[in-house]
Design brief:
Blueprint: E1 5-6, H1 31-36, H2 40-45, E2 68-70, H3 91-95, H4 100-116, E3 121-123, H5 146-161, E4 166-172, E5 185-187, H6 190-197, H7 199-206, E6 211-214, E7 218-221, E8 224-227, H8 232-242, E9 248-251, H9 260-265, H10 281-287, H11 293-310, H12 335-348, E10 350-354, E11 368-372, H13 374-377, H14 397-404, E12 409-413, E13 430-431, E14 439-444, E15 450-456, E16 463-465, E17 473-482, E18 486-494, E19 498-502, E20 505-510, H15 522-525, E21 530-536, E22 540-549, E23 551-552, E24 558-567, H16 573-585, E25 589-595, H17 616-626, E26 630-635, E27 650-653, H18 661-670, E28 701-703, H19 712-718, E29 735-744, E30 757-765, E31 771-780, E32 791-800, E33 805-812, H20 814-817, E34 819-821, E35 826-828, E36 832-839, E37 845-853
Parallel strand pairs: 1-33, 2-3, 3-4, 4-6, 5-7, 5-28, 6-9, 11-12, 11-25, 25-26, 26-27
Antiparallel strand pairs: 7-8, 10-27, 13-17, 14-15, 14-17, 16-24, 17-22, 18-21, 18-24, 19-20, 19-22, 23-24, 29-30, 30-33, 31-32, 31-36, 34-35, 36-37
Helix pairs in contact: 4-5, 4-12, 5-7, 12-18, 14-18, 16-17
Protein name: Beta-glucosidase
Family: Belongs to the glycosyl hydrolase 3 family.
Keywords: Carbohydrate metabolism, Glycosidase, Hydrolase
Amino acid sequence: MSPTTTATGAPDSNGSLAGTETIAPSTPLDPAAVAASLPLDEKVALLTGAATWTLRAIPEIGLRTMTVSDGPIGVRGTGDDGRPSAQLPAPSATAATWDVELQARLGALMASEARRKAVDVILAPVVNLQRSPVGGRHFECLSEDPFLTARLAVAFVRAIQEQGIAACVKHFVGNETETDRTEYLSRIDERTLREVYLAPFEAVVEAGVWTIMAAYNGLTRDGVAETATAHGPLLNGILKGEWGYDGIVVSDWLATKTAVEPALGGLDLVMPGPGGPWAEGLLAAVRDGRVPEAVIDDKVARIMRLAGRVGALSGLAGETLPYDMSGATDDPAGDEVVDLLTEAAARSTVVLRNEDALLPIHPAPRGRIALIGNNAVEPFTQGGGSAFVTPPHVSAPLDALRAAFPGAEVSLHRGGVTTVGAPLAVAELLTTPDGEPGIRIDLLDAHGTTVESMQLPDAASLWFPVHDDAVASARVMTDVSLEHAGRHVVELGPVGAHRIVVDGVLRSESEQRVGVEVVLNSSYSNPPSVETVIDVEAARAVRVDAEVQVIDGESYGRFVRLHFRYRAPGPSVDEELDEAVAAAAASEVAVVVVGTNPESESEGWDRPNLALPARQDELVRRVAAANPRTVVVVNAGAPVLLPWLEDVAAVLWWWLPGQEAGRSLAAVLSGAIEPSGRLPWTLPAREEDVPVPHGIPVDGVIDYVEGLDVGHRGWDRLGRTPAREFGFGLGYAEWEYRSLELVDGASGDEAGAAPLAIARVTIANVAARDGREVVQLYLSAADDDVRPIRWLAGFAVVDVCAGDTATVDIRLERRSFETWSTDAAGWTLPDGAYRVHVGRSSRDLRLETAYTIPG
């Protein structure tokens, strides 16, 4: 029998999970004393960033610059050194493991990457909830469930901060939509706010998180409608007051518009810098009495406390830091990193269907495997926006499958292009007007006179900074070599005022200038394209001549943004579909990789629907008809509709798998690693069934009308049947649930940290292979019509050998039973009868028992 395993529950009152020691770093410095010793102008200056990614230094007191970096898929750094970053699977993928230990290992890797990139603060994790499946940052969030989100976030944060790197949990709060994200107000009733949307933030505060990011949106609460960066009842009242949070609250980038309200409301740090509303406005507000200097001192003390925690405040006698400050990743492509990221991506993969045990596949000697799909050729490894990092490599599925099945013949077939836009123009096809490789850039002043010229190697470089204030626009010139007869497509996507000439013809012109506002919306990262179709009978060159404005990004600097794409003649989608179907028919197994792409999933915009792009549904149906041994692999971070789900032999949800995409897929298909993922959200069968179909503001407000019933709770409330429910995942083993008993909670400490009870669950692996199970525990209260029909209250991940049994203990924490009372303005523990359910998913509940809280 396998040993008893203690599972994750809620953190106890001192912030520690069962069996985990709380890390409470401290130094002998007195942050308040340091703050009080500084002159007022220096104190105020500390409260705005020094640059886009750095905080101010004061060498005289031993305070060095602190550097922050985007996450949560990897540590990008400041972007100045060009070094690649380890690219993790998307958070929605790692959440599918339900594995706090693996989450901690990934957090430790992030901390090591931060060391390598000289980063002090990682802007991760995101603990907003996946309220609607079309949310643009759905892939960046962990789950639709607040309990699962909280448990995984706590493990991730602790692992980062144990290495002396700060985690910055975001976005506080009610930031579940990208549409008009800087303008809308989230209207959430107090009970829902407390029990659902604040719950993950409360958990990470109890665990000791050092920084929290205030969101772009506003929130209505207690009659106060205010932006998240200036919401005193939330920041001062709940976060710092009620919860006792001693870290800093930093604004999302460019979210702060005024000086006084955010300063009084609880914001501590405005980013980015220099400049911004606090640069001069806050100093004046303190001097004329609108903001007390004591408020400034508290903010500075918090920054000093952060500096002490990350080792940025030196020269203090007796200062000690309880961390290994030397650990750094040697190589983001090293064996240890590759192995961890392969394991994470494989373990996160969810088996949605596996008829006749087709998976794992075992091709015959010299058997054929047809690998099909645009996402098989170019796997989508990460979503767009601030989470984007440049990896050291992307493991190709074709190479990995050939290595995993050396006796088989593995062929690759696109099956049709799935993106609307063309690929970036490659360097080999580009020549400057001077005959040099690449693209020539003339930087022009307001009169059109050339100030400076430079040369860029390829189209990927057409987002570049401009440091000379005299430069008003950039002229981009190159000759594109059209090497073959046929139809060629040239696309240019300018941001702002522009004039575009292609092949001697004016294609587009606009005098509409833009400014810093484009940084925060989709027009910046996904500008509309000006498309030119050119039919040629013989090879020739085409001149591209485009002039684009310089954008004043204020704290982001001045820059030019232009995308330049090119598609050469090639087979039509119909021809590629036919070729893929023929290959499938001639193969022993067909593996079809479908999914989303950078046009679909990104920060900055929400998806319009849940359909797979282009003709991928048609591809699946035709391949499955040609070969009944078809495995469909879904390469997407957020839900998409799978209308053929019950018509194919096997389906895997592969997520956005990160840099080890191919290796993880090969490990899953071959059975080297069991795909033990369980859905951290609900997969819809039909778009019209989704409880919250979108998050589009109405008159500037998003009403969270579903209340407590977010995600799977909403599906239960409405009685609708999804394609696959929350928590679903078959894995490769088979399981029996043998027994469930409740035992008294272990005696707690003086803070009352003992659980109310412990659920002891015995399961058996009845398969012929070892397996990993995720035992899920849900509660219900029959006499309470307001509470969700069922809610997740615990889980355990356990490995069990073939034919063996295991017993897991799951803590039933007091908070899982408590409700927020608006009348009492506090948490209450309702007495009465409850049911405790355990099983494999939210709707595959194998055992249950009663639990009573006496009156």
